[in-house]
Amino acid sequence: MSHANKRKLRITAAAAAGALAVAGSTLAASWAAVAQAAPAQPAAQPAYNFATLDNANDLTFNQLLGINNNGVIAGYFGSGAQGHPNKGYQLFPPFAQGNYVNENFPGSVQTQVTGINDKGDTVGFWSSMNNANQVNDNHGFYKLRGHNPHTADFPTGSPATPPVDQLLGINNSDVAVGFYTDANGINHGYKYNIKANHYSTVTDPNAPTASLTAAAINNNRDIAGFYTNPATGNTDGFLKYRGQFTDLAYPGAAATMALGVNDRDEVVGVATVGSGSTAAMHGFTWTPGGGFVTVDDPNGIGTTTINGVNDEGDLVGFYVDGNGNTDGFAAAPVTHTVRLRVNLSAMPAGTVGISNGAVQVNAWGLTPGSAHVVALLKNGQLTVLGSLTADGTGDVNDAAFSAGSIPGGSRVVVLDGDRTTSVIAETKKVDGGGQYRLHAVEAGFPQGSLQGHATLTYDPAAQTITVTLTASGLAPGAHAAHIHVGSCQSQGPVAYMLMDFNADANGNVNHQTRTVTGVTAVELTGGWYLNLHQGNSNNILSNGQPTINFRPLLCANI
């Protein structure tokens, strides 16, 4: 394959093993409660830039299953539950909703597109059923670009009932691989030469009767998949290279499934670590010289599956998010230094609407789950209107209060919890009805003093992020800081912790630098935010839950 045909996957802020189950089944339900168990990690994970990619036809369930060297992705949406059938698609770069192209087998009820080569030829499987018990027939298919799709089922005299036959991968010579299930429930891997219309079996030469699935094939005709290891009874991955069968067992894993392979024999897949309530699913890559490394989407640690890899090392797969949705993702290796300068915004922020004596507050950037007193402030006197409670992302939506007559020159203020002497946000002086901006303040400093900026530098060789911060308007002392998943407007979990920044007696942080190491996932083009907190590392949490001191003071989306 010529390098001229390769296109590097570019993931931007705008982009911001399902195929191996019988059509209509879902792994999401069993993954939603999976514990975030730490995997055994034989080597340092290379850094990737991740992007969640979900087809708007169903934002609750997407799986990305293959990617070619032109950056075109094969996948599907729909969980397969009754009334929510699988529907196949291709996603073309640049990744946007308008670049999803439906691909469904004619007359089918369900379709999954599981593999794609550089010519745009695809393989997958289809079903004529969408049963409530999710036991449906499966039929493999291929579609050569510019031609009609064709069913391709392995010719067996003892198929399962209903039949299960899936094509999962295809190379540029239009040689596909897949599996069928026999009447005894045993999977049999096979290879199908589309142009010659010729089927042949794929087996472990040391265990030719073992249950085996051929999941991917590269342009050297090396095959990756998984099988039942007769020596251990475990599910192990494999790479069949020039006829040599190599067992792939992720260290400490109860099961290893190899699902994709590129022309450099980089294998990708998923490993199950632990069992029962402590089980977790971790994506991995494996190379002949480097062995296994763990690759988890930062939004789905413990629920990540990697299904496809191209020759540039770009990955596609899926994870289960905190809401139980299955989200597709793409990940591009980060090989160059990234430097980003951001302005820090004072938190909380929002608006206050006043009409006919009613006050309505919309705000973000509060401590998640925190309660705050809302009051009118005039000449140092507080008139309490009531309290509001932030949701789990630190937001307040349409908190309404009856104020009656609002004295001219009053400010609407939000207090630091129930601390009636500490104002954390206020409007300008109210002059009749209308919309007023909510400005963040820190105790003892005038409105507008709370401000700052930061520079973030990612070094892929050292796997570090260096943060240099300058800020003013802070309470003197230590302030915790983190890089979080999510945004200032919708706060999420911590991705990386920084050492506390220290404000001097005047409330200033002057060009202080902190460095985090072991950076294995990078989202410096959307998906992360930098937070400087009100409290320090010792008092922002209690029993693992945010305290009132967790309140963001300064924040920037990165």
Enter the CATH topology name of the largest domain: Neuraminidase
* Main beta sheet: 8 strands, antiparallel
Structural class designation: mainly beta
Q: Radius of gyration from the CA trace? A: 27 Å
Assembly context of the chains: single chain
**What spatial form do the alpha-carbon principal axes imply?**
elongated
- Under the CATH scheme, the architecture of the largest domain is 6 Propeller
Helix content: under 10%
Mean pLDDT score, rounded?
A: 89
- What is the assigned CATH homologous superfamily of the largest domain? TolB, C-terminal domain
How far apart lie the N and C ends? Answer: 37 Å
Number of β-strand runs: 43
Query: How many DSSP helices?
Result: 1
Contiguous runs where pLDDT drops below 50 for at least 5 residues: 1-7, 11-44
How many individual domains? 3
